Amino acid sequence: MKVTILGCGGSAGVPMLGGEDGRGIWGQCDPNEPRNIRSRASIFIRMDDGEGILVDTGPDIRAQLLANGISAFRSIFFTHAHADHIAGLDEVRGINRTIGQPITAYATPSVLEEVQTRFNYVFQPWTTVPHFFRAVVEAQPVPLHGDVVMSGYKISLFEQNHGRIPSGGLRCGDFAYSTDTVELPEASFDVLAGVDTWIVDCFQKEPHSAHAWLEKVLEWKERVQPRRLILTHLGPDMDWAWMRDTLPAGVEAAYDGLSFTLPDPEKA
């Protein structure tokens, strides 16, 4: 399977809107380093047989899919219902047109309820009209923690603490994804045992109430011992070159468009 980081920024991206000249607030990030330009956090998993799973549909999803040449998939997994992870849902109508069918949206019942409240029209039944004038997805409730099947593959979901709300982590074979989390229950560490590559939330250097920070993530690395740890959901405090020069062996910063391959997970 091929995993592509579509976006690795926080809820406001980098640069954030504003600045003296109106061209953005970069914080500690060097504006001359292209890998500091970060759209909102999302990933895409492409299996060797062509099946695909999109994780989250943030407000930048159209540009992200175009930039990475992604035009077909049957599954979306929503980690949680914050706007930076769902606000671009309507953009998948172009995918509907390509595949000629609805897309299955997987999330916990509470997340699906909130997404449906904001995008009620997207969840209306598909009819045999020759054009998809709107996005069409079909809700598939899944547990916060447990094994499910997406696009024919076994996926292990695990609970995360995102401050005031829970969020969902995902393990797919030797790969795991943990955006928007500040704490992990013991049962979630059990799911992560033996993982090869783990993409994990690391918003800033200092402690945060809803997102993991650098010291916290390095503690998790020592416990989980992944071969490769990739930091995502990076805020304006996290300059790419600084991370390249500072992070310990086996830990690296994500950037939009970073991709890698691993063996496919088990088929259901």
From TrEMBL:
An example molecular function term from Gene Ontology annotations: hydrolase activity
Source organism of this protein record: Acetobacter persici
Stored Pfam families: Lactamase_B_2
Segments forming domain Metallo-beta-lactamase: 39-233
PANTHER family for this protein: HYDROLASE C777.06C-RELATED, HYDROLASE C777.06C-RELATED-RELATED
Protein name: Metal-dependent hydrolase
UniProtKB keywords: Hydrolase
CDD domains, sorted: metallo-hydrolase-like_MBL-fold (cd16279)
